[in-house]
Design brief:
Helix content: 55-70%
Largest sheet: 2 strands, antiparallel
Oligomer: single chain
Shape: globular
Structural class: mainly alpha
Strand order of the largest sheet: 1-2
Distance between the termini: 21 Å
Radius of gyration: 18 Å
Length: 224
């Protein structure tokens, strides 16, 4: 195990966890440095309805847990990182990677407030800084152990849980077959709840699995 890379990964994970906490606290307070409109943002506990926030919290937790395990290895109390810790890290990185890609290629280009509205305030960290930092650390400094391929599917769990919550929330607020944008904040059910479930959800889960599998393979240096 390369101790130099392990030290860099440890620092990177500590920074990731700190940034995730900072970004979540920032959005929680609703503080803003300017009057420019910020898309998909909410104050206090209302922020948890967004997958952006949930995925970054998951990333922050996985980075913190990984940092603790890496510290144990560096101090000689452990020989290597537990598989469960590495799988949790893969799930966290996959979640924020999905968040970044959906934002860049779908949410930002279609935002009525403009592309940059998704990259202001705390969203800049959640949609860009934290995902990029997490990917870099995972792919360049954390190749110290193999994650069994069967565990790569765990990367889909966070999206599946969130999708179940989102669909249930929309179903509970149906009015004449339509869902108010207040409860359908991503617009997934704009064409109908059933259509959204049958088309959007499977595609999202498939994309998430593909992202997780790609990150898993790249983490192994391209080896299958």
């Amino acid at each position: 195990m390369d101790k130099n890379k392990l030290k860099k990964a440890y620092i990177g994970n500590c920074l990731t966890a700190a940034l995730a906490l900072f970004a979540a606290a920032w959005m929680f307070t609703g503080f803003s440095f300017s009057r420019a409109a910020v898309a998909l943002s909410a104050r206090r506990w209302g922020m948890l309805r967004y997958y952006t926030v949930d995925s970054n919290i998951l990333m922050g937790l996985s980075a913190a847990v990984t940092a603790c395990a890496q510290r144990a290895v560096l101090s000689g109390r452990r020989a290597s990182l537990p598989t469960a810790v590495r799988v949790l890290k893969l799930a966290g990185v996959t979640a924020v990677t999905l968040t970044m890609l959906v934002t860049v290629f779908f949410l930002a280009p279609t935002s009525l407030l403009g592309f940059s509205s998704l990259f202001r305030g705390s969203n800049l960290y959640m949609h860009c800084v934290i995902p990029l930092l997490s990917i870099f650390v995972f792919l360049f400094w954390e190749r110290d152990g193999d994650i069994p391929r069967r565990y790569s599917a765990c990367a889909v769990v966070s999206v599946a849980v969130y999708a179940a919550f989102y669909i249930a929330n929309c179903a509970l607020h149906l009015t004449d077959g339509a869902v108010s944008r207040y409860y359908d904040w991503y617009g997934s059910a704009a064409g109908g709840l059933v259509k959204g479930c049958l088309l959007v959800l499977p595609l999202l889960l498939l994309c998430t699995y593909g992202i997780g599998l790609l990150l898993w393979r790249l983490n192994r240096g391209g080896r299958a």
